[in-house]
Design a protein that fits this description.
Binds and transfers iron-sulfur (Fe-S) clusters to target apoproteins. Can hydrolyze ATP. This is Iron-sulfur cluster carrier protein. One of its GO terms (molecular function) is ATP binding. By secondary structure, the protein is of the alpha/beta class. It has 2 domains: about 80 residues, Fe-S cluster assembly (FSCA) (GMP Synthetase, Chain A, domain 3, 2-Layer Sandwich), CATH 3.30.300.130; about 260 residues, P-loop containing nucleotide triphosphate hydrolases (Rossmann fold, 3-Layer(aba) Sandwich), CATH 3.40.50.300. It has 11 helices and 15 strands. It has an 8-stranded mixed β-sheet, sandwiched between helices. Bound molecules: adenosine-5'-triphosphate. The site of adenosine-5'-triphosphate has 20 residues, from helix 3, strand 14, strand 15 and helix 10.
Length: about 375
């Protein structure tokens, strides 16, 4: 067997999401051949890639069918999370992907989804940060059991004001606007005051190197959302909804806002939360108490990916209230829904990076 033969065979293996073969995409590295043994490394676009087994099998088959049916093939995986930023001098320069989690309506589980998405991506091997920018109802301090903690300041080169160091918990970095301002005061902030607080918040926290920064946004579609998108280059948004009509109507407003010609931030996908109720003692029973598949239908109508359907489970609520989000627990059954959702989100982000325009802050021309 020769290196050329192996690469030629592997050029028949498609990266299913990116629609090109793994050799053209430069994903094959470190090929080693020893008699009948061949090993190589496939560099994925995200460590949380749920397609590893599929790609591994396709590689093994390609080598055995096209080169040598006796070959013993070892496929190793590594990853270099893709990014679509070219503005590395700008704000948050070492953050590869900035994902805003939004909802049209309050209370649909946006914070729960943000926190567990961040944890699931980190458990897949990515470096992840969670920024709670929900100025009117920051939930991260309670969800992560860090209420009352005061973040440290640090001096870094090129910034004489000092920067805020995120906390670290359950393998992710996190910061909440609720840890920096008095929650009672923030509620009454409106307009420019809220906008300037959010601008300062996103630029003053030192996230350093991250594959994904998940931003838990305030509910609705308002000035704060615009300010954020004018301040940081948002890779894309994840929209959270529940299946009821009232929530879906508001989710549509969110989708419409981000899709507007002047804004045009890509929608990574939609996640339907509280899709059905499952009692702990009967995990296979599903009760569609908020209606069936409203989020799924909405995703189809707007032609955006449905990233997941998360059940309504008592332990998800308890985890949020007790400072241990479900992805930090050992409730394997419930975690599965979030793991699948995070895998789908990571795939969709990689596709966005491969296929769409460069990520940049938006400029809105007033008037
Ligand atoms: N899938 C779920 N199963 C059970 N409880 C859930 C689920 N998702 C969210 N919850 C609970 O619902 C409540 C609201 O969730 P969360 O705070 O995440 O919503 P939100 O959309 O961020 O709210 P807000 O608009 O106030 O920011 C919380 O008590 C949370 O634990």
């Amino acid at each position: 067997m020769t290196q050329e033969q192996i690469l030629k065979a592997l050029s028949n293996v498609q990266e299913p999401d990116l629609g090109k073969d793994i050799v053209t995409l430069n994903m094959v590295k470190d090929t080693e051949i020893n008699d009948n043994n061949v090993s190589f490394t496939v560099v994925l676009t995200t460590p949380a890639c749920p397609l590893k087994d599929l790609i591994r099998n396709a590689c093994v088959n390609a080598v055995q069918i096209l080169v040598n049916k006796e070959a013993k093939v070892t496929v190793n995986f590594t990853s270099n999370t893709s990014s679509n930023r070219q503005d590395t001098q700008a704000v948050l320069p070492k953050v590869k992907n900035i994902i805003a989690v939004v909802s049209g309506k309050g209370g649909v589980g946006k914070s729960t989804v943000s926190a567990n998405l961040a944890l699931a991506l980190a458990q897949g091997g990515a470096q992840v940060g969670l920024m709670d920018a929900d100025i009117y109802g920051p939930s991260v301090p309670i969800m992560f059991g860090v209420r009352g903690e005061r973040p440290m300041m640090m001096q870094i080169e090129g910034n004489d004001k000092g920067v805020i160091v995120p906390l670290e918990k359950y393998g992710i970095k996190l910061m909440s606007i609720g840890l920096l301002v008095d929650e009672k005061n923030a509620v009454v902030w409106r307009g420019p005051m809220a906008s300037s607080a959010i601008r300062q918040f996103v630029t003053d926290v030192y996230w350093d190197e991250l594959d994904y920064l998940i931003i838990d946004m305030p509910p609705g579609t308002g000035d704060i959302h615009l300010t954020l998108m004018q301040t940081v280059p948002v890779t894309g948004v994840v929209v959270v909804t529940t299946p009821q009509d009232v929530a879906l109507a508001d989710a549509k407003k969110g989708i419409a806002m981000f899709g507007q010609a002047q804004i045009k931030v890509p929608i990574i996908g939609l996640v339907e939360n509280m899709s059905y109720f499952t009692p702990a003692e009967l995990p296979n029973n599903k009760y569609y108490i908020f209606g069936k598949e409203g989020g799924k239908k909405l995703a189809e109508e707007y032609d955006i990916p449905l990233l997941g359907q998360i059940p309504l489970v008592q332990s998800i609520r308890e985890g949020g209230d007790n400072g241990e989000p479900i992805m930090a627990s050992n409730d394997e059954i419930t975690k599965k829904a979030f793991e699948e959702f995070a895998g789908a989100a990571a795939r969709s982000i990689a596709m966005r990076n491969a296929n769409l325009e460069v990520t940049k802050v938006i400029e809105i021309v007033e008037g």
